[in-house]
Design brief:
About 50% of the residues lie in helices and about 5% in strands. The protein has helices at about 40, 80-85, 85-95, 100-115, 120-125, 135-145, 160-185, 200-205, 220-230, 240-245, 255-265, 270-285, 290-295, 320-335, 340-355, 355-360, 365-375, 385-405, and strands spanning about 5-15, 15-25, 30-35, 60-65, 70-75, 75. The strands form two sheets. A three-stranded antiparallel β-sheet has the order 1-2-3. A hairpin with a 4-residue loop joins strand 4 (about 60-65) and strand 5 (about 70-75). Helix 6 (about 135-145) packs antiparallel against helix 7, helix 9 (about 220-230) runs antiparallel to helix 17 (about 365-375) and helix 9 (about 220-230) packs across helix 18. The chain is globular. It binds acetyl coenzyme *A. Acetyl coenzyme *A (ACO) binds near residues 269, 306 and 310.
Length: about 425
């Protein structure tokens, strides 16, 4: 790829020498000091745990301006995509770089719907799990297990094999996620029905039962589709970087995506919406909010306001605004007067006026309202991160593909500063 332009030089004085490092400019965002040759030229590494000042790749997929609260996919603002597009169209955009024409979109939709079924042998995996297994434990295992069914995908040098792997992953994730939910609740698996939209099909596979006729609710299907769009990609976050790192060794794409699922699980990342809803429930009523705000500000209390703050956004997460509107639509449609939504709205209002949150630039993130919607739809909290993973699969695939096609990418291998024991000689156990 390498389309970033050199626009300057940074000089580093070190050990009595001046090293010149190229300064690169992308299309948007701050300039970047290219330190690739630093070790070779100056015999030093850079140290940046948490990668707050470190870029790992050049990418053309997603851009975030955290200060302004901007999120673009292939240049298109997320608000426009959420308002005017659908998840499969956004998926095409992320994977291919351009919005599809009508015939391209028909072909892509057909391809995805032709791959929604799982190999029947996959169903046997579920029987090995305890009924109360956490859905993310099952998802991590079963996505990784899919690599056993598609050995051809190991050939990452073949663009057709790569394309097929991405189509299969996008197509099968809803079926897998729905089976995980059904296994937890002890209901029979529902097979995909390909004349339904992506979101309708997923909701049906989750909530239809053989004993009753199931009718899709267009408002809920639209909300589900929006949630998928809002979670589709988010540049080099922890799980995406994990997928790229795992894939950089040439690992099977399903295994690399399984690594992304594992990374997404944690409460600082994809698990935050589950943690956020639990927190809103724990707060319970508007009058208890000050107590929780005080705890969030107390340095001696590890409690954090879940759904607030973001590594990159130091302004409103643009996805949170869409999510808040969608939450209101879903609750209205379902006729739910949810006290949790009242707590969420009031908590947001109070926190946004509080000096601590203003100073630290802590704003609601995408997870603040998504839990309220998913809960109203009938998903148990443990399923929330699974739905996030389902939607993020297309982002992981797009990023993985970009990495594979980038000739400058090598196996990811960060360095360290060693602060352990200096060299010493082994002492026999009886002499210690
Ligand atoms: N509540 C209270 N204080 C907070 C919060 C919060 N939610 N988030 C950050 N802070 C404070 C920290 O205590 C720290 O204060 P200090 O400077 O006095 O030590 C300061 O803000 C900076 O916090 P860091 O943890 O250094 O910021 P970082 O960028 O590493 O963390 C993160 C970002 C993990 C998202 C954090 O804000 C957080 O834990 N939020 C709650 C969990 C959450 O909602 N995660 C979802 C993220 S979105 C996603 O993954 C889809």
């Amino acid at each position: 790829m390498n389309t970033a332009k050199q626009t300057g030089i940074a000089k580093l004085d070190i050990n009595g020498r001046t090293i010149e490092l190229p300064v690169l400019s992308g299309v948007e965002g701050p300039d970047v000091v290219d330190v690739k040759r630093l070790y070779a030229e100056a015999d030093v590494f850079t140290l940046d745990p948490g990668f707050t000042s470190t870029g790992s790749c050049e990418s053309q997929i997603t851009f975030i301006d955290g200060e302004k609260g901007v999120l673009l996919h292939r240049g298109y603002p997320i608000e426009q995509l959420a308002a005017n597009s659908g998840f499969l169209e956004v998926s095409y955009l992320l994977l291919n770089g351009e919005l599809p024409t009508q015939s391209e979109f028909r072909k892509f939709t057909h391809e995805v719907t032709q791959h929604t079924m799982l190999h029947t042998q996959m169903d046997r995996f579920f029987e090995g799990f305890r009924r109360d297994s956490h859905p993310m434990a099952m998802l991590t295992g079963t996505v990784g297990a899919m690599s056993a069914f598609y050995p051809g995908a190991m050939d990452s040098s073949d663009p057709d094999e790569r394309h097929l792997a991405y189509i299969r992953l996008i197509a099968k994730m809803p079926t897998l996620a729905a089976r995980i939910y059904k296994y937890n609740v002890g209901q029979p698996f529902v097979n995909p029905q390909n004349d339904l939209s992506y979101a309708e099909n997923f909701l049906r596979m989750c909530f239809a039962v053989p004993a009753e006729k199931y009718e899709t609710n267009p408002i809920l299907a639209k909300a589900m589709d929006k949630i998928f769009i809002l979670h589709a990609d988010h540049e080099q976050n922890a799980s995406t970087s994990t997928v790229r790192l795992a894939g950089s060794s040439g690992a099977h794409p399903y295994a690399a995506v399984a690594a992304g699922v594992a990374s997404l699980w944690g409460p600082s990342h994809g698990g935050a919406n589950e943690a956020c809803l639990n927190m809103l429930r724990e707060i319970g009523s508007v009058d208890r909010i000050p107590e929780f705000i005080a705890r969030a500000k107390d340095k001696n209390d590890p409690f954090r306001l879940m759904g607030f703050g973001h590594r990159v956004y130091k302004n409103y997460d643009p996805r949170a605004t869409v999510m808040q509107e969608t939450a209101a639509e879903v609750l209205y449609e379902l006729g739910i007067d949810n006290p949790v939504l009242q707590v969420a709205k009031e908590l947001e209002r109070i926190a946004l006026e509080d000096d601590y949150f203003i100073e630290k630039k802590l704003y609601p993130n995408v997870d603040f309202y998504s839990g309220v919607i998913l809960d109203a739809m009938g998903f148990p909290t443990e399923m929330f991160t699974v739905l996030f993973a389902l939607a993020r699969t297309v982002g992981w695939c797009s990023q993985l593909n970009e990495m594979i096609e980038d000739p400058s990418q090598r196996i990811g291998r960060p360095r360290q500063i060693y602060t352990g024991a200096a060299r010493r000689d082994f002492i026999e156990i009886k002499s210690r």
